[in-house]
Amino acid sequence: MHFWPYWLLWACCGDYYAALHNTLLGYLRFGKGRCNCLLGSGVIAGGMPRFISALTVLVPDYDAAISFYVDQLGFILIEDTVLSADKRWVLVAPSPVSETRLLLAKAASDPQQATVGNQAGGRVFLFLNTDQFDADYAAYRQAGVHFVEAPRTQSYGKVAVFADPFGNRWDLIETAAN
Question: What distance in Å separates the CA atoms of residue 113 and residue 122, rounded to the nearest whole number?
Fold first, then answer.
């Protein structure tokens, strides 16, 4: 059994009555009760959170990729470790506190090289959220980032699509206030 205070459940699911009901029962077991918000929260037995730590982005060249992500997008170079004569472990992230990072991996085979810049089959591959869209958009344009679409406002927020030098499409997005 795992005990959850009702205020945590209320903060998580926004349903005061379900949270209070589960607290009055004295426990919330995974898969039981009316508040299932913790089931998809990434919390596993023992309380350790799960999250995606890295996504691999295939690139033709480590240094060109670092130059784009760090110098043009302003990402942080988290790690650059030489593993062998032709393999490095290169992690970048939008900020030092980002849970999810990009592993820049040099394409080493013909099938890998064929997917560089097209890892999502022509769709937007990655989403970069911001709370200052206009400033970031202007800074990225000034830094030479290639936007393939002009900014537009959607029901979910403000968005513009840009491409990395290898062809991967990204959304720069500022979500609408709730």
Answer: 15
Domains of the chain are 6-40 (no CATH), 51-116 (3.10.180.10), 120-178 (3.30.720.110)
Q: Is the dihedral of CA 83, 87, 91, 92 positive or negative?
A: positive
If we measure between CA atoms, which residue out of 128, 168, 129 comes closest to residue 148?
Answer: 168
Straight-line distance from the first to the last Cα atom of the chain, in angstroms, rounded to the nearest whole number = 34
Q: At what angle do helices 16-25 and 6-13 cross, to 10 degrees?
A: 150
Q: What whole-number distance in Å separates Cα of residue 41 and Cα of residue 80? A: 31
Query: By three-state DSSP, how is residue 130 classified?
Result: coil
Please tell me the pTM assigned to this model.
0.72
pLDDT in tens, the chain (178 residues): 344 443 344 444 454 444 444 444 444 444 444 444 555 555 556 677 888 999 999 999 999 999 999 999 999 999 999 999 999 999 999 999 999 999 999 999 999 999 999 999 999 999 999 999 999 999 999 999 999 999 999 999 999 999 999 999 999 999 998 4
